[in-house]
Amino acid sequence: MLFDILLFMVGLVFILLSAEVFTNGVEALGHRLKLSTNFTGSVLAAVGTALPETILPIIAILFFAEGKGHEIGVGAILGAPFMLSTLAFPLIGLTVILAHFWLKKRALEINIETTGFRRDIVFFLFAYSVALFIVPYENETLRVFTAVFLIILYVLYIWLTLKGESNEMEGGGKAILFPNNPNPHISVIIFQVVTSSWLCMITRSTHVC
Question: Which of 2, 3, 49, 152 shows its CA 20 to 30 Å from the CA of 30?
Answer without folding.
Answer: 152
